[in-house]
Each structure stands twice: as structure tokens, then as C-alpha cells.
Design goal:
Elements lengths: L1 E5 L2 E15 L2 E14 L5 E12 L4 E7 L7 E2 L4 E10 L3 E12 L5 E12 L6
Organism: Olleya aquimaris
Pfam families: DUF525
Protein name: ApaG protein
Length: 128
């Protein structure tokens, strides 16, 4: 598990390999990840957007950005957490993801970014 705290918001990431399949005559490697966002600050916050950079071992880089996470914009009071699962496809058995969440602090009304730490994606069969 990878973890990081930014401005009192703790991000924890767990990953797993889901399998391989062919799409458009190319092999794809499917990875899942579970993220827990925990508000360890004294203020209520809301997650408004996400920004991902996804890398694979073949030097492909993909940027994914959008509102919320899996269709939600969770509000977290102090001590609360939100967990969700998602996934990505790579064209190689190794890769990594990193990014940030755009959030707003309800007490100060200020927007801020919370770092999503870099986490590795690897298919177990490809490891020595």
C-alpha cells in the first residue's frame, strides 16, 4: 500500500492485476486500484476533480482528467473517509500512475490540490 498526506488529507492506494485481454488485436493488461481518501484535517472538504498521469513500460503516457471520482464529488467532514475502486488498461505488464485531486476547503472556501502518490502497476507473471 502507498500512502501520502497533503494538507491533512491522507490518500491510501492498493493495486491489483485483473488480467489480460485483446482489444483491437493488441494485448492489454488490466489493473485495478482502490483509493481511500481520509480527512485528517479540522475542516470539511469536497473533492471536485481528478487529474491522472498514467505511464507504461513502453513509454506511453496518458493524461486523464475530469470531475469527481466515479461520478461522485464526496464531501468529507473531519475524521471521515471515502473509498472507491477503479482501474486502467496498459499496453505493457508494468506501469505507474500518479496525480492529484482538486478539492475545496469549506471553512476557508479556498481550493487546493491533494497529491496522489505514484503507485506501481505490475503483472505478477512478469516479475522475476
Amino acid at each position: 500500500m502507498v500512502q501520502q498526506v497533503t494538507r491533512g488529507i491522507k490518500i491510501s492506494v492498493e493495486t491489483n492485476f485483473e488480467g489480460t485481454f485483446y482489444k483491437n488485436y493488441k494485448i492489454n493488461f488490466a489493473f485495478g486500484y482502490k483509493i481511500t481518501i481520509e480527512n485528517q484535517s479540522k475542516d470539511s472538504v469536497q473533492l471536485n476533480a481528478r487529474h491522472w498521469t498514467i505511464f507504461d513500460a513502453l513509454n506511453h503516457k496518458e493524461i486523464v482528467a475530469g470531475e469527481g471520482v466515479i461520478g461522485k464529488k464526496p464531501v468529507l467532514k473531519p475524521g471521515e473517509s471515502h473509498t472507491y475502486s477503479s482501474g486502467c488498461l496498459l499496453t505493457s505488464p508494468f506501469g505507474a500512475m500518479k496525480g492529484y485531486y482538486s478539492m475545496v476547503n469549506f471553512t476557508t472556501t479556498k481550493k487546493f490540490n491533494v497529491t496522489i502518490p505514484t503507485f506501481k502497476l505490475s503483472a505478477p507473471f512478469a516479475l522475476n
